[in-house]
Amino acid sequence: MENKQQSNGMTKGNNAVKKKVNWSVSLIVASLTGAFGSSFLYGYNLSVVNAPAGYIKKFYNETWERRYGFSVDEGTLTLLWSITVSIFAIGGLVGAIIVTPIVKFFGRKCTLVLNNVFAVAAVLLMSLSLLAGSFEMLILGRVIMGVDAGISLSALPMYLSEISPKEIRGSLGQVTAIFICIGVFTGQVLGLPEIFGQESRWPFLFGAIIVPSLIQVVILPFLPESPRYLLLEKHNRSKAEKAFQRFLGKDDVSHEIEEVLAESRVQRNTKLVSIVQLLRTRAVRWQIVTVVVTMGCYQLCGLNAIWYYTNNIFSESGISHDTIPYVTLSTGAVETLAAVFSGLVIERLGRRPLLIGGFGLMIVFFAVLTVSLTLQNTVHWLPYLSIFCILAIIASFCIGPGGIPFVLTGEFFQQSQRPAAFMIAGTVNWLSNFAVGLLFPFIQAGLQTYCFLVFAGICLAGATYLFFVLPETKNKTFHEISQGFAKRNKVTLEMQEMNHYPVERKSSEQQESNFTSSVDNGETKKGIV
């Protein structure tokens, strides 16, 4: 009876906590500053090369002719340009691979700050390439910028998921996707002829990257590190309490501290898990598969193909060549508005409906787009339907598939597993990105407008898998999310704990005593296993 009363009391207390969530100034500034110098730059670098493509190719040709005395042939020029665009993904893969030891040693916030070294180096190389007469500098800068993006797309979602209360974890996590969209849109705006979209000004498009980096370097160091990182990995309770107080905007953070400590007691240690250990852990097997599926579909669902067709479809609709860059801004605006909408409703609707619904809508509009593109020369109004389908596909992607995969990766795994999980997610993300860039021209050449049916099939496969496998994660702790996967992983909760740490351990009481002592003293005890 007494236990029931205590349980009821805890439930009421938890409900009270859920009703009031403080968006403190520190929480807002940390999320906006972190995203502006990270995911914003990723989105910006996706679109920034489109507007000056003709000028950059001309620069390549002139540089080649000055060096060798003859113009570069069309095949070599196309190869150089393809390398310039796609090598960004190779750098991203490198960044995703090296992020785990960096976030372990420096922490989440410091990793974001130090990552700007790559951004500044890339800015100098790319913006000065025309002046130096070296296209190799531009290509090398794209590689280094990719490394920056690979690190930030893992470190930022990790940081946001660890500083946010679970009641708004999804909304705050969507900041990553929102700023990717804002970055794409900004690249489109700055690429207009009136701004930097001119032959003499295109290096400024790459020089502008330094602005978000400097803002992040100036502001982020004055904000707290992830309190979970401080408590569970650095065992510094006093700093963790101060971080929670600033992020939550209140003095009493005992509930939050106890919630994190409760997770640590379930874990029974905070030693970081390697990728091999994570892959061999039965208790998170389906979580890993789900992350691989969502990240793979994130890149393979066909949005890159949409960007490829946009100018052609606008041209077929009767829009003049000079007007197309301005009309293209509508795609970036729709992308941004859809991402903001997703951030506003994710805590009400949940992750499942937005993710599965987004893929479902993409399937419908891909099918309609295939029909309209195939028949657009026979019916005069069909090109306008194609434009609508393009905007609808972009919006459908951004309300769910465009940001939720990053949120889920932060929610599925406990503290010790999170860096390795983000490394796996990042690797899948960048390999898929590179595969699309490499294979799409061949798919398009072979299937023409029917290539969109391939992407519709990928969206269908992803939506079907998520419908049967993905549990809802909104407002849930790691322990509760693990319960949602326990049956599918064929483990009990007790087996889950054993599976995470199949080593010889001390008694539970002794471990908890040692851990609490180490946290209170701000020291790391080597005896905790």
TrEMBL record:
Q: Which GO terms describe its molecular function?
A: D-glucose transmembrane transporter activity
| Domain named Major facilitator superfamily (MFS) profile: residues | 31-474
* The entry's keywords: Membrane, Transmembrane, Transmembrane helix, Transport
Q: What is its main location?
A: membrane
Q: Where are the transmembrane segments?
A: 21-42, 79-100, 112-133, 139-160, 172-190, 202-223, 288-309, 324-346, 353-375, 381-408, 420-441, 447-470
Which SUPFAM superfamilies does the protein's record reference? MFS general substrate transporter
Q: Which superkingdom does the taxonomy of this entry point to?
A: Eukaryota
Kindly list the places in or outside the cell where this protein is found, as annotated in its UniProt entry.
Membrane
Q: Which terms in the GO cellular component ontology are assigned?
A: plasma membrane
Q: Which InterPro entries match?
A: GLUT, MFS_dom, MFS_sugar_transport-like, MFS_trans_sf, Sugar/inositol_transpt, Sugar_transporter_CS
**Entry membrane topology:** Multi-pass membrane protein
Which portions of the chain have biased composition (kind: Polar residues)? Answer: 510-521
Q: Which GO terms describe its biological process?
A: D-glucose import; dehydroascorbic acid transport
**Residue numbers spanned by region Disordered:** 502-529
* NCBIfam families, per database record: SP (TIGR00879)
Q: Which family does it belong to?
A: Belongs to the major facilitator superfamily. Sugar transporter (TC 2.A.1.1) family.
Query: Under which name does UniProt file this protein?
Result: GTR9 protein
Q: What is the lineage of its organism?
A: Eukaryota, Metazoa, Chordata, Craniata, Vertebrata
